Amino acid sequence: LALYMQVAERDPRNSELLIRIASCLAGLRRLEEALEQARAASAVDSTRTEARWIEGLTLVQLGRDAEAVASLRRAASSGAARTLDLLAGALERLGRDEELVEVLARLSLHYPDPARQRRAAVLERLGRDDEAIEQYREILRGDPRRDAVAERAARLLLARGRHDELIELQRQRAEALPEERGLRRSLIGSLIQDGRLDEAEAEIERQRQADPLDPYVELQLGMVDYRRGDLRAGMEHIDAAWRLAPDVPSVVRWRMRLQLAAGGIDSALVSAQRLRALRPADVEGARVEALAWIEKGHPQEALEALGAWAELDGRAAEPWMAAAGIHRHRRDWGAALEAVARAHERAPADTAILLEYAVALDAADRRAAADSIAAALLAARPDDPLLLNFYGYMLVEREHDLDRAEDLIRRALARSPEEPAFLDSMGWLWYKRGRLEEAARWLQRAIELGGRHPEIYAHLARVQIDMGRQTEAERTIRLGLGIEPHDLELRGLLEEIAGP
């Protein structure tokens, strides 16, 4: 640098010399001085792309990307890879994706694979999925082993419903890489998913010929039978796969699914627990375990499994809603409120969760907050029968402003006169007013029209008990327990009839 500076004193307008000085200064991280010398070189000779390159480089290093883009665009006329790469980085940081796509197209002439992959990702961001898919296909034509690229292409094709193209892409990779059995399994899975079951069977037979003891052959034959509606045959194949590979998570998972579909709660629970032992982070295993414990009427075990499910799936509101239901059955309103609040955090726009949140707030004596939620929803949709009934029933439960409650429930019934939930609300309203015959009439009608919620049976049984009709009440309770054997309210009414 010192020698160049000495020479520059005698020849201050030598652009080559100014560029060398700028390069030395940039290497010494004296960026502002380097920028000044590079600009001086450009002023002397505007055709010197090296000066523009150093100017762009120092501006990038100074964090001045917008200025760098202007310099690098002029330098990029030479098509040099380093200039295009630096320009692409600056445009990406600035979020100028439309310009970035064009620069990456030029850069792909130098670095075809990485530049195309970057370009495809940008095209995805821009919503230009067709072009992104084509970029991924070009990469895979050059190297079909690129699993991550294939996965991105598959995701886009699935999102656009282009199943035939996805299957063709998978078929091409499976044929190009016959030693990669996982590729043919993926192809078979897509054929099954798309309902092309005969083609799937033909591909499975090819797998069987290659390896008669491959457990995935039995697994996928079971999936084909299941999709054809033959649950028994499907289960036989899945069991055969399990005997060949009892510790393969995908086999255990499908065994669990078919056991659940067949109503085998106990066996599905065992499979879910085995799946979680094999893969502790498996969300579906935790979900099925939780649902099985709920079905079996083991609330504490269910709550533990629901907690695991909620932790593994940080976005799902369902496990918290299920937990709220358990707490509500236990009359633990504080825990129910906390669970619904967590569900609401995960799905703040879900109306059903908002309504459940209002119920939990009301049960916890936070009535003003409950009213605020219900009133806001009803103001937004004043003719929604579900909201009308919900708010009306909440007022009935409080035994407060029953005239207003009746008006709301009648408005709901005017829109859906045979909805069992609305008929139940009206029956409970009359019970709260002490009109037992009228209450029984409405509640019986709710059941006759298909009401299957245990609460409706509990309401009718309560009315029948208060009317002195113990035999009828017991019959009603037992019908309700046939729907929900572990309902605490129904069981409590049965104990009340039985006496001490």
Automatic annotation (TrEMBL):
Keywords: Repeat, TPR repeat. The keyword Repeat applies. The keyword Repeat applies. Pfam families: TPR_16, TPR_19. InterPro entries: CellSynth/LPSAsmb/PSIAsmb (IPR051012), TPR-like_helical_dom_sf (IPR011990), TPR_rpt (IPR019734). This is Tetratricopeptide repeat protein.
